[in-house]
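Troubleshooting log. The previous structure file for this entry was overwritten by mistake, so regenerating from the original sequence record. Sequence copied from the archived sheet and checked twice against the printout by T.R.
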Amino acid sequence: MTVGVSLAASRSPLDAAQPASVRPGELATVSTYGVLSSNDGETNTRAMNEAIRNLAAAGGGTLVFDPSPAPYPMIGPVILPSNIMIDLNGQVLQGRRAPGDVMFVTGTFSNRVLRSNLNSKPETELVSGAGIYGGRIEDCTRVFHFRNFGTSCYIRDIVTSQCIQVARLERCFYSTIDNVTAAGFSDPAIPTFHFVEETNAVVLRKLNVVTAFGLCIEGGAAAVIVDGCAFEGGQTAVRLIGDCMGIHFRGGYFESILGRAFDLRWAGACWIEWTANFFQHVDIIVDDGGEDATATLSGKWHASNYIVMAVAAGFMHLPAVRRQMRVAGPRNFVSYDAGCADNVAATVPPNWIVGKHSRVRFETAIAGRSLTDTRARAQVHAGILPTVRSGDTGEPIIGTIPFTTMRVTTGERAVIRIDTAIRFQPDSLFARYLLNVEDDGGKVSLYGDVYGANIVQLDKVGKRVELVNVNGMVSILVQSFRSVAHKPVCTGSIQILT
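Regenerated output below.
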């Protein structure tokens, strides 16, 4: 139901500020209260706040903009309290982008007084059941400045253009931002979406951001989902400052970012998961701050994340990018899975900068085939050793450690050395093995356990099995062969725990 009718342009909007009685949950058109596209911005803002005050006095409702061929001038702030929804109805709101201007702020309504809650103390003057949706907003310094924007609150289906900042959100919880586009003028020092002072159980869905600095979350966050969002152009897509305990980036699109897609240099204790994101022409995909970083990072980087390494024709005119993964922080405990071809070298790719505690696992195109490079994390690596000499790893199967290289010597004291791509961890190694070897003395089976660094297992047939550090990687030495007539042969399986 719509309350009231459009006013004649000759009437003062404030004369129309006392409409017919409004019942909770009903609709009211803005023209009922004198909000007209022909007005100046200050007049429309006063009329909007009076409309909201009347709706709030009735228990809440939806304020709808009338169709207009011209934009609605609006110089804020318009105050949004609990239980008020604003339907832009496909219309354009026009700001003036003056220093300090904000178009919408959250607030409270009590004793027929509507006022901002931006200076409220934590856990006070909460806003719930409020939202704004369905239109276009242009030329603002800041579109939304919301505090305690909580349960069942939302911003959705909004297009912004030429706005320095779309939203600053303080202490938000159980709220949603959905299908919001930001493009045009921006400032690389000001995030388009800025969450501060704790952010809990918030969902960001389908943000389309073409600005210099996309999203910043600081001051503590928990249970945040960033789903299907696109960040294009600019220097920074996402920056985390402080603790973020449980944040999931999934299905994102990152393109033409000449700085960092994920800037974690000022992160605190964070648990982060990345799933099925796409990166094209991005200089630094993740930057954890390197060896001097103070962040403690845990979580998972899934192999479903795709980094385009080739330079597409449409990007030839842009500055060159390095496509780097900088994950060398001393407390970066994220598990990184990355796709690779079956025949790639057993080393971290050159675009990955890793540290002594980084854990990187490379998955080949065929399910179950993987190379694991583990550092400072317990991980089981099990598989079939090469079936022939000279470094041929044979056909990998589920559980295999590919890229294993076998080296053999001959003579009275022949040695078989099996080099793996497992990082050597002193005093934290355990291996269980079953090997079939053949030398001048015939065939023999070796089996047993090896514990700790450089601990030698002497098999009862006199063969020695030892784990050693070769250039920072685990190597398995099988010694005490007599191989004068021909090189020894070794097949079998081994399980390594680091």
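The two ends are 68 Å apart (CA to CA). Archived copy saved in two places this time.
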